[in-house]
Amino acid sequence: EPVESAGEHATTLQRYAPARPAMKWPFSEIWRVPVTPRLPRWALAPHRRVAAAVAVHRGLIAAIGSDVPGFITGRDGDGPRRDTGHLAIHVTEEAGLVFALPADVNEADRAALLDALARGPGLRLGGRSYRLGLPTVGPATRFWPATSPIWRTEVPLVLDTAGPPRHGRWTLDDAVLCSVGYALRSVLEGEGVEWGAGWAFRRRLVDELRRRGVAAQAHRVTRQASRYIHRAREGDLLVAAHATVAPGSLAPDAGAFLALGRARHLGGGLLRPV
């Protein structure tokens, strides 16, 4: 409505901004998905979680049928989706089955996943049938109720870069830090880190993470590494490790959802605050 006694001469321009811009996180939402009947205890064992997540993933794709969104298949055309644009499926003792939705998922693809869950998709696990239901939704940055600046793997991660370079030193801790960088690619690129490939880039990535206060300690898991990964090429060197990670300033909240390694989207490498 027009006001006779005031106009542009009575107003001043004010600009407001947060004291610290909101940091981008690879995942935006956590969906806690009910399973009927409840998942068996054996499926929650660390060496069974990848297999359980793969069974859920297959059930989802079968329920959607044609035109499965790329963020669910994890593929763009003939190749894998880059960065974190992939639905992460994990099982935990506290929350049961959880879906972590990538931050860049669009509304149409999100709705397709929700519609599939509304139809109660089924899955087979250990020779028994289960059915999924509608989820409860929460923020991915506050997934764990307890918070800590130190995170530890609940499930071993299979290292993204297992073999050493031809020249120079490369430790197990370096390899875990590299996996942290791959999992947080969108965060690092948002802060000006230029992405690359090859050993020279991996060394720069590890050095950059250390400069940002990220630290990692790891010890190798002697059990068969193939238990903790879904798919690998013939001849791949698979190394599984447990890791303790301090994400430093890269984590927007000390209870955020994150997983590491080659199976981070399907049950592997889940990090938990200590």
Pattern of helices and strands: EEHHEEEEHEEEEEHHHEEE
- In whole angstroms, the N-to-C terminal distance is 57 Å
Helix content: 10-25%
Low confidence ranges: none
Measured on Cα atoms, how large is the radius of gyration?
21 Å
For the sheet with most strands, the description reads: 5 strands, antiparallel
Large-scale geometry: globular
Fraction of residues in β-strands: 15-25%
Protein model, in words:
This protein is of the alpha+beta class. The chain is 23% helix and 22% strand. It has helices at 49-64, 70-73, 107-118, 172-183, 185-190, 198-211; strands spanning 27-33, 35-36, 75-76, 79-80, 88-92, 96-102, 122-125, 128-132, 136-139, 151-153, 157-158, 215-220, 240-246, 271-273. Strands 10, 11, 12, 13 and 14 form a five-stranded antiparallel sheet that branches. A hairpin with a 2-residue loop joins β3 (75-76) and β4 (79-80). The model has no long low-confidence stretch (mean pLDDT 89).
Please outline the helices and strands.
Layout: E1 27-33, E2 35-36, H1 49-64, H2 70-73, E3 75-76, E4 79-80, E5 88-92, E6 96-102, H3 107-118, E7 122-125, E8 128-132, E9 136-139, E10 151-153, E11 157-158, H4 172-183, H5 185-190, H6 198-211, E12 215-220, E13 240-246, E14 271-273
Helix pairs in contact: 4-6
